[in-house]
Amino acid sequence: MWASTLLWPFRIIAAQDAPAPYLQVPSQRQLEWQEQELYAFLHFGPNTFTGEEWGRSQSLPDICNPTDLDTDQWAKILAEAGMKGMILTAKHHDGMCLWNTSTTAYKIGNGSWAKQREQSSLDADIVRMAAGSAKKYGIKFGVYLSPWDIHRDPAMPKPGLEGTMYDEPQIFGDSSPGDYNVLYVQQLTELVTMTLADGTHIDIFEVWLDGASGSDTVQTFDWTGFRDAIRQHQPGAVMWGHQGPDARWVGNEDGASRPTNWHTLSRTQDDPHYAGEALERGVRDGRYWTPAESDARIRDGWFYHAGEPSKSGATLMEMYLKTVGRSVNLLLDVPPDARGLIPDTDVANLRDFTRLRNATLGRNLVTPEHSTFSSNVRAGNNNKYGPCKIIDGRQDTYWTMDDGEMTGWVEVDLGNVYCVDGFIVQEHIALGQRVGGYGIDATVDAGTYRAVVNNGTSIGHKRIDLLDKAVKTSRIRLRITQANAVPLIQSLQVLGSRNCTTK
């Protein structure tokens, strides 16, 4: 009896312990990165002035001659559009560097535009300028550094550079003299150790390691060395690659993903590459936490080209719902034009996109004061795991049930009848992604529940479900119909109008 008495309180305490992490979990930098959700790509460089996409022309640095370059305008417009950061093409495939690198003469700093600015005591280091503007307007900064370098690739003709200071050794390729990986690490190190004009260290939130190549030259990249350089100097930076290590490609450039999305893969950047479908879906219960990012464009091309249409706010909103609304970060390319400014048409469409996003998603009917109910609460501990946690607005709390409870429900009483037309649900992914099936019900006709969202699959960081038609209701129920471990629901938002006129 004595031993039995001791065991009983021990079991109560154990039952109240927090759920154990489920398989793979995100690092702190990955968690912070997934919270960014929407940020901009800025493709700018010689292609902006030549009309190219990949820079095969190998023009002289004088080609880069923006008449009104204003990186403050970039950052201000992006911040106003609700974007949390911007990633600049510090070096695209053409090989011309936008910062004052010591690794090559092929840099904008050797062009007439930069020299004129320097003569007027103005900064001509576009990467540093952009980083300073990002900081000024409160958004994060990242860099794209193309591993493929046409300027150093012997298979790519460069007749316009013959006999000039830019006719540099062709070291790209395993069979070429020299070691291109050494040069790339030097360039990467310059970027990740860069400081602002006042000496302030630049924090980089993402480094884009593009694997694209349009050459037959075989170059074995030292991915391990690249990653080591970034980790050493920017430990908080997420590294994007085809399969990670921190974030993966979503498998297309359309601003869309599949309805089911897992934050894990079972291969790394060093393994054979998955096909597009596997990258879009991810691999459930995979070996590595590698969430997806969707790189998409506001125009047809990555670089600015005169005459190209700009996507409307409505089109951008549709992209947002098919990416961020399915737990995929959206990296939207907004290329500056030959003036060095984001074009007026793009600015207008970004503003319309922001208006639509706010009008659609900024209508949460639920506040922490609303009543909540659930099928089960972990160890009966409502203060720590109760259903009220899904509406408290915090990222460190969640509703959950006892271990072994894989299905269950949580309800929110709206306190009155409203027109509801959408929902935002989030898992507490800090402890892993668990849910593989869910549905959402609303009370109609004298309190009877009717399903309004059917056959939902993954939730992950964020799931947005918009209804085709609003429903008049006073009570919402989220059902977890399948999970591989006890589900942890961090947040439920109910979108709609308090002035319900739907018949």
UniProtKB/TrEMBL annotation:
InterPro entries tied to this protein: FA58C, Galactose-bd-like_sf, GH, Glyco_hydro_29, Glyco_hydro_29_N
Keyword Hydrolase attached? yes
Pfam families to which the protein is assigned, alphabetical = Alpha_L_fucos, F5_F8_type_C
Q: Which Gene3D superfamilies match?
A: Galactose-binding domain-like, Glycosidases
What would be an example GO MF term here?
Answer: hydrolase activity
- All copies of the F5/8 type C domain together span 356-497
**Signal peptide: which range, if any?**
1-15
Q: Does the keyword Oxidoreductase apply?
A: no
**Which PROSITE patterns does the protein's record reference?**
FA58C_3
Q: What is its EC number?
A: 3.2.1.51
EC class of this enzyme? hydrolase
Keywords from UniProt, A to Z, are:
Glycosidase, Hydrolase, Signal
Q: Which family does it belong to?
A: Belongs to the glycosyl hydrolase 29 family.
**UniProt name for this protein:** alpha-L-fucosidase
- The species this protein was found in: Apiospora phragmitis
